[in-house]
Amino acid sequence: xxxxxxxxxxxxxxxxxxxxxxxxxxxxxxxxxxxxxxxxxxxxxxxxxxxxxxxxxxxxxxxxxxxxxxxxxxxxxxxxxxxxxxxxxxxxxxxxxxxxxxxxxxxxxxxxxxxxxxxxxxxxxxxxxxxxxxxxxxxxxxxxxxxxxxxxxxxxxxxxxxxxxxxxxxxxxxxxxxxxxxxxxxxxxxxxxxxxxxxxxxxxxxxxxxxxxxxxxxxxxxxxxxxxxxxxxxxxxxxxxxxxxxxxxxxxxxxxxxxxxxxxxxxxxxxxxxxxxxxxxxxxxxxxxxxxxxxxxxxxxxxxxxxxxxxxxxxxxxxxxxxxxxxxxxxxxxxxxxxxxxxxxxxxxxxxxxxxxxxxxxxxxxxxxxxxxxxxxxxxxxxxxxxxxxxxxxxxxxxxxxxxxxxxxxxxxxxxxxxxxxxxxxxxxxxxxxxxxxxxxxxxxxxxxxxxxxxxxxxxxxxxxxxxxxxxxxxxxxxxxxxxxxxxxxxxxxxxxxxxxxxxxxxxxxxxxxxxxxxxx
Length: 521
Description:
- It contains 14 helices and eight strands.
- The protein has helices spanning 3-149, 153-200, 221-227, 232-241, 261-277, 282-311, 318-326, 337-354, 359-368, 383-393, 398-406, 417-430, 439-454, 482-499; strands at 212-216, 244-246, 253-257, 331-332, 335-336, 459-465, 470-475, 507-512.
- Helix 2 packs across helix 8 (337-354), helix 4 runs parallel beside helix 6 and helix 8 crosses helix 12.
- It starts with a helix and ends in a 9-residue tail after the last strand.
- The relative contact order is 0.04.
């Protein structure tokens, strides 16, 4: 054989042997990896089985715990229901016993009533027999009297009735007048005592606010800055605040004119800040006025809270507290509304204490009686009815609501504190120096008093004296008797009370005199 061929065969054989050996090694490695993978799979399977078994046990434990809790709750609910059922059964059993006892008592009462009824029937029969006998005796007695007096029974009865009637009327009038005088004396004495003690225990201010505030300046040069170029600054201030600024020849002063004290206060504080800052122009004015308005709202709330704390009033709604604070910047006939309300509240508390009533409730009603004068929105209702509506809206006591609405007799008084609030409101308003009265109104009231008295028959002259606190009426003696004078005085006082509005009280004095005039010559 050719040596090259032999060499080739040997190389091919060696190559084939190498390939076969490589495949055998690869097969061995593959088998080993397969065995390792199978072992790993078995391990993973065992671990998964352990985890599954653990998870199953945990769920079983949770289920058992939940079952125990549900069973415990169910047992508790069942025991609670059983307890309620037993209590209900006990109440029913007690009611049954009570009903049975009442039935027994009722049966006994029925039997006793039957016995009493029988006794009454027997007594009625005896009374009827005696009455018949008495009537016979009375008829016989009347016949004898008719023979003696030569009058029939009806005529004698008529004369006796007329005589007794006249005597009874005379005595009744005298007794009535005596009772009325005694009651008036005692009532007036007790009322004066209570009112005087109430007023003496209350210290009140007599400060009267007007519609003008004076704003002082360091120098007259600042007036030019406030006026501004062509008056734009002063127009901006008036437009933003609603207050008229009066710049005249008064040295180092500007007048702020407005009927609303709240607006005047906003304007005063705004001017104070603008002058201190030095930057006065329309944009800055609007900014300062708005900030001042917000700060004043906070101040109003603070005033209201301080007021109710000082008066010892608790549980007042925030809106009512804010309205109480707004009273500080309102006036009534020149009297500061907050001072008037505080004074009325203190008077109500003292008077309620004197009368043995609840002083805290009376003080609360006295403080809130004029909240209808400081509403956020205008209303067609009177301030008393509007105040009652606001108090009811914010959950006030019905007695307080009624006292607010009835303090000007616009609704019926349903609680005892209502007349107390009305009286204390009148006391605070009628106190000397408390309120300012315009001269024209004063003169008109005097004239109305005299005209009202002159409208009665028999009145000759009428004079309102002591600043309208007393009305003296002179009547004609021929047309008005002494008894008519008392009646006339009462009627005039009632008419004044019903038709006129006045501070304090008015005394009506009717004067009747008979003059005999002769001239010696």
